[in-house]
Amino acid sequence: MTMLLDRSPGFGVYIHWPFCAAKCPYCDFNSHVRHQPVDQERFACAFETELATMRARTGPREVTSIFLGGGTPSLMKPQTVATVLDAVAKNWTVPDGIEVTLEANPSSVEAERFRGYRAAGVNRVSLGVQALNDKDLRFLGRLHNVEEALHAIGLAREIFPRLSFDLIYARPGQTPEAWQAELEQAIGHAADHLSLYQLTIEEGTPFHALHAAKKFAIPDNDHAADLYALTQEITSAHGLPAYEISNHARPGAESRHNLTYWRYGEYVGVGPGAHGRFVENGRRTVTIAERMPETWANLVEAKGHGVTGGEILTRSEEADEFLLMGLRLAEGIDLTRYEAFSGRGLSTARLSVLQDEGLVAPIGNARLRATPAGMIVLDAVVADLAR
Ligand code: SF4
User: Fold this and answer.
1) How far, in Å, CA of 331 to CA of 249, rounded?
2) DSSP-derived secondary structure for 202-263
C-alpha cells in the first residue's frame, strides 16, 4: 500500500477561477467563456473579501494546502495569483513549504506565465494534458497539441518542485495497446503524480447530445473495466500505484489537498460555484457559492460573500460522506473515526458479506479498505455499508 506522509485530515483552502478560453465538450465543471477580457482586479478584490469573510467563520486555523482550480487558473495573471495567496496568508497561518497547487492548461501562452506563478508561491502544478495524441486532443476539444503539452511538461518540471498531469482514457476506439503505450510515455515524462480519469458522458454537455445521437461510442463497461485494470497494473509496475481511484503517485508525492477531501478534513471554498466544508460552532457546515461569476462578484461586493447555499450536516450525513470519501483511498478508513461520526460501528453482518464477496478488506484491526473489485462498484458498497 502507498505510504502516506501522515493521516491528519487537514485544513485546505480552495480557490475557484471560473473562466476558460473555450468550453471542452465533455466538461460539466463550473467554467465560463468570456469574449471580453475578464476584469482580474475586480475578481482578485472579490476573492480577498470572501476569504476574509470565511476567516471570520472558521476562526484562526493552520492551512495545510492551497489549491487554485477551475475553470482554467492558468488564465490568471501571476499578480492575481499573488494577491489571492497573500490574502490566504493574511487570514490564516500558512506554514512555509505547504503544498500550493495551480491547475494549468498546456497552451504556450499559459506556459509563459509559469515563472510568475512560481514567484507568487505556487510549488505544484497540475497540467490538463488529457491525451498524448493530436487526434484525440482535437476530439476532446482541447486547444493544445502534443508538442505544446510536452513543452509545458518540460517547462513545469524545470520551474516547479512538483508536477502532476491529467489524462483521460477509455476514449472512443482506444485499444489496451494504445493506452498502454500512451500511459508509459506519460510516466516516462517523470511526473510524480498522475490523475487518470475515464471519459464519462455527463448530462447537459455537448458530448451527451452527440453520444445520444450515436455520433461516437465510448468503450462498454467490460472494456472500460479492462482499461482500468491495465491502468492499475502499469502504474504500479512503474512505482506510481493508485492511492485513490483515479490518482497515482510515487510514495510521498500524493496531493495533500485532495487527501484532505478524501480523509474528510476541512476546507474553505472561495470563488464562483466553490464548495466548502468546515466545522463551525462544533458542526460540519457546507457552503455552496453562486455559480455565475459576475453574479458571484456582485454578491461579494454587496454582502462580503457569494455563498447562496449550504447546510449543517447531521451526524449520519457526516458518517455517510466520510465512508464515501475515505473508501476511495488505498489507505481506506479509520473505523474509530467512523464510529465517532455515526455513533455506532459498521454492521458486522454486512461487513462479512462484503468481505466474502471480495469487495472490502480489513487493514489490521483499525482500518477498512475497498478492494480493487470494490472500487469499481464503490457507490453500491458504500450504500450497503451505510444502511
Ligand atoms: S479547460 Fe477544464 S474546466 Fe475548462 S472547459 Fe475544458 S475541461 Fe472544463
Assistant:
1) 13
2) -TTSHHHHHHHTTS-----HHHHHHHHHHHHHHHHHTT--EEETTEEE-TT-S-HHHHHHHT
pLDDT tens over the chain, length 387 residues: 443 434 578 999 999 999 999 999 999 999 999 999 999 999 999 999 999 999 999 999 999 999 999 999 999 999 999 999 999 999 999 999 999 999 999 987 788 899 999 999 999 999 999 999 999 999 999 999 999 999 999 999 999 999 999 999 999 999 999 999 999 999 998 779 999 999 999 999 999 999 999 999 999 989 998 999 999 999 999 999 999 999 999 999 999 999 999 999 999 999 999 999 999 999 999 999 999 999 999 999 999 999 999 999 999 999 999 999 999 999 999 999 999 999 999 999 999 999 999 999 999 989 999 998 899 899 999 999 987
In CATH terms, are 11-261 and 316-386 the same topology?
no
Instruction: Report which protein residue has its CA nearest ligand 1's atom 3.
Output: 71
- Which residue, by CA, sits nearest to atom 7 of ligand 1? 27
The rounded Å distance from CA 71 to ligand 1 centre is 6
Residues 6+ apart with CB under 8 A from 244: 258, 262, 328, 329, 330
* Cβ–Cβ under 8 Å, residues 72 and 57: no
Looking at domain 316-386, its CATH architecture is: Orthogonal Bundle (1.10)
pTM: 0.95
The CATH number of 11-261, from 3.30.70.270, 3.40.50.300, 3.40.50.1240, 3.20.20.70, is 3.20.20.70
The domains of the chain are located at: 11-261, 316-386
Nearest residue (by CA) to ligand 1, atom 6, is: 24
